[in-house]
Design a protein that fits this description.
With 263 residues, the protein is of the alpha+beta class. Helices cover 23% and strands 15% of the residues. It has 3 domains: 13-92, Beta Barrel (OB fold (Dihydrolipoamide Acetyltransferase, E2P)); 102-208, DNA-directed RNA polymerase, subunit 2, domain 6 (Dna-directed Rna Polymerase Ii 140kd Polypeptide, Chain: B, Domain 6), CATH 2.40.270.10; 218-263, no CATH class.
């Protein structure tokens, strides 16, 4: 799947260890014995030993090449010294959501998937439309995100009336405009009853946060292993400092936590 320049083609399916960019690097002249030096002096041959320095997909990764960007020094003068050409390859993965994956909205609301069930086991509306995602209602008072409530009603009206609403940041639809759309959809008499009588259903989008439970697993054995182990984020670091866990911090921030090449 490599082209004439050694770069993989767009659309290729790649797995762990597959070559993305083919590259060889000369090792330079090797130490020769006197006899080999004499033969090289007579025949004029040079040691042409090279090593494989190709860019390969890391272990545990897979996907499909979706984009390739090439940069040269002629076009980008700010490239590091000694670098004449740079190739960036984007590999996309398609994953199914599982328990433990994190999802987030546009209003600071986020949460972890606790259960995945078939669509026939989900609640449904009076017209038979099945609910695709159930959110914990505690997410609204916890984050105090009134925008999520307004988006709920606007999305509901847009779904009933068949239009798409564009609501830019700091310049979105206000309460009066949302009430007008709800009135057009004959929902004003029902819009606020959901607090006491029924669940709150909204038509909108929920985005995946790039934190998957499979990526949070340990990459290898903990201590003194070249693959490293689990990461230690800032929140955990503050917690351990508060409880004066000096030895635990030393382990997590060294061999136990990260790839030794990143230390």
């Amino acid at each position: 799947d490599l082209d004439e320049t050694g770069i993989i083609r767009i659309g290729a399916e790649v797995g762990p260890g597959d070559i993305l960019v083919g590259k060889i690097t000369p090792k330079g002249e090797t130490e020769l014995t006197p006899e080999e030096k004499l033969l090289r002096a007579i025949f004029g041959e040079k040691a042409r030993e090279v090593k494989d320095s190709s860019l390969r997909l890391p272990h545990g990764e897979h996907g499909i090449v979706v984009d390739i960007k090439e940069f040269s020094r002629e076009e980008h003068r700010d490239m590091p010294a000694g670098v004449e050409r740079t190739v960036r390859i984007m590999v996309a993965q398609r994953r199914k959501v599982t328990e433990g994956d994190k999802m987030a909205g546009r209003h600071g609301n986020k949460g972890v998937i606790s259960q995945v069930v078939p669509i026939e086991d989900m609640p449904y509306l009076p017209d038979g439309t099945a609910v695709q995602l159930i959110l914990n209602p505690l997410g609204v008072p916890a984050r105090m995100n009134i925008g999520q409530i307004l988006e709920t009603h606007l999305g509901w009206a847009a779904d009933r009336l068949g239009f798409k609403a564009v609501s830019p940041v700091f310049d979105g639809a206000d309460e009066l405009e949302i009430q007008a759309e709800l009135a057009r959809a004959w929902l004003m008499d029902r819009a606020w009853d959901v607090f006491t009588e029924q669940a709150w259903v909204w038509a909108g989008e929920e985005e995946m946060d790039p934190e998957y439970v499979t990526d949070e697993e340990a990459l290898g054995y903990y201590l003194l292993h070249w693959l490293g182990g689990k990461g230690h984020d800032e929140e955990m670091l503050v917690r351990d400092r508060a409880y004066a866990r000096q030895v635990v911090l030393q382990e997590w921030l060294s061999e136990k936590g990260y790839d030794p090449d990143q230390l």
